[in-house]
Design a protein that fits this description.
The chain is an alpha+beta fold and about 350 residues long. The protein has one domain: 3-Layer(aba) Sandwich (Beta-lactamase), CATH 3.40.710.10. About 35% of the residues lie in helices and about 15% in strands.
């Protein structure tokens, strides 16, 4: 017979192991009866290891797993910014250069003396082309051809003089995508593959949203499966550079760990540029392709994203060396934010 002390130690050890392995799933399971026709993936990585889980559906008939892929929406901007800095490190551009050195845009509201860095940290003043009206146009006219010039034409004003404040605009990153193409002389998708995905072993990460992507959780929106509605191509076309990368939670963590914890991607000079914080709206401070703010007692570095129809949150709690990633395939979801808050341990949303 086991002695009581030994039995207690074994029970304690087993409980600790189960807790470490299932802590993410335990949080997710609180919402398993609240979601319908879509799912949520979550991942937490810290000094105890990497834990992930999933609930809900990837499509009408397939249960979601933590290995499914999802579009990460505007978290794409971190990849785009990183690629710009990679090109700087290779001597192919300088973020202090004006955009007019590399491209000429046919729009009276775009000042070609704006610098690349002002695009990166959202201080260009260029009005956001990504409006609700554009989204409605895509939904109602999915067979229409949506070119980069179409998106440029949607910029119909200036929000503020360049360099005077920081305000989020998808237009900045759409233009950065065009600069990448001009500098590399290759499509943006190929540049992502060459300079980021292949170099860092991101084998499940793809530079576009496509029905051909194996393992993609279908985007669910108000009882519609958009995968079946032929909407992925036009959504992809209006999101190049700013919101269309597809990946898994594990590879999103891998990239952000290399970038923000290991400092293994950029030169010291480029890291200094990327992580120079400027005051934005409220508690948010703007870096280049990344944000920071205080959440409870913690300083967090993060980016979030929304796409038709996905939501992505990627957070790095620097002092704890902890990552929290939450993905969902329904942009109307209200529960993923609650999962984020619980896994962070403070009110992020």
């Amino acid at each position: 017979m086991l002695r009581p002390v030994l039995l207690l130690l074994l029970v304690s050890f087993y409980a600790t192991q189960v807790s470490a392995q299932n802590r993410v799933q335990v949080v997710l399971n609180k919402y398993i009866d609240s979601i319908e026709n879509y799912g949520i993936i979550a991942l937490v990585a810290d000094e105890t290891g990497v834990n992930s889980g999933a609930i809900g559906m990837a499509d009408d008939t397939t249960y979601l797993t933590d290995e499914h892929l999802m579009c990460i929406g505007s978290v794409t901007k971190t990849y785009t910014a990183t690629l710009i800095f990679k090109l700087q490190d290779k001597g192919m551009l300088d973020v202090s250069d004006s955009i007019g050195k590399y491209i000429s845009l046919d729009n009276e509201y775009i000042d070609h003396s704006i610098t690349i860095k002002q695009l990166l940290n959202h201080s260009s003043g260029i009005k956001d082309f990504g409006t609700a009206a554009l989204l409605n146009e895509v939904l109602t006219e999915p067979k229409k051809i949506y070119t980069p010039q179409f998106c440029i034409d949607k910029i119909d004003g200036v929000d503020f003089p360049k360099g005077t404040k920081h305000e989020y605009s998808n237009s900045n990153y759409m233009i950065l995508g065009l600069i990448i193409e001009a500098v590399t002389q290759m499509p943006l998708e190929a540049a992502y593959q060459k300079f980021l995905f292949k170099e860092y072993g991101l084998e499940q990460t793809t530079p576009y949203l496509s029905v051909q992507t194996e393992g993609l959780a279908h985007p669910m929106f108000r009882d519609l499966d958009l995968f079946k509605e032929a909407l992925l191509k036009p959504v992809n076309d209006i999101s190049r550079g700013d919101g269309n990368i597809v990946t898994s939670a594990a590879e999103l963590y891998k990239f952000f760990k290399l970038l923000l914890q290991d400092y293994a991607v950029l030169s010291d000079n480029s890291y200094s540029d990327m992580l120079t914080w400027e005051k934005g709206n409220g508690a948010t401070q703007y870096g280049c392709g990344i944000f920071t703010k205080q959440v409870g007692d913690e300083h967090v570095i993060y980016h979030t994203g929304r796409q038709l129809s996905y939501i992505a949150t990627c957070i790095y709690i620097q002092d704890k060396r902890k990552f929290v990633i939450v993905l969902t395939n329904n942009m109307d979801d209200t529960f993923a934010d609650l999962v984020v808050n619980e896994l962070v341990g403070a009110k992020f949303y």
